[in-house]
Amino acid sequence: MSDTIAHNTGAAGAAPSTRSYFVREHHPENGSLLGFWLYLMSDCLIFACLFATYAVVGRNYADGPTGAALFDLPLVAVNTAMLLLSSITYGFAMLAMQRKQLRSTLVWLGITGLFGLAFLSLEMYEFMHLIHEGAGPQRSAFLSSFFALVGTHGLHVTFGVIWLVTLMFQLNKHGLTPENGRRMMCLSLFWHFLDVIWIGVFTFVYLMGVLP
User: 139 to each of 66, 91, 129, how far by Cα in Å?
Assistant: First the structure.
């Protein structure tokens, strides 16, 4: 809201009067969600290109190790469970927000962040193990496309965790305001989007990668 001050001179010789007008700057309804959907569509194009690249060069091993020799499916399955559980806990946070329960919202967001950090920790362990075994991204086209796809998804999760922590500070300071509600909805779309992408990665890269 902003103030606009107008001066009215009135009749000749009269003292000028000052009037204040309040101008309300309305936020376009659902404008943030529309803009965020457009962002997600652009992100879909990025991941579509990475998936397409992996589909083309994912079998070019250059006489190096294959996915069947490198991938640890039990570890990846645990990592997948961490991310899927984080999606469930974020849903609980959204329900708590709708019930105007600030403390429960913060608790569920904190649990979601812990699951996200667990996912990133396991992914970093996998990357470090592969590099230690001499299977870095420079080893073959297969590994280059693998690190590019999985690493880009991990980078998104990292930004998501940072966003989540920032949102928790905003909620703790300002409460469950309509603005914070919009931010929670946008982060919900982003977090569930990353879940969908990871299901594609788990199926297309890991499960199909261990096939002969």
Answer: 11, 40, 14
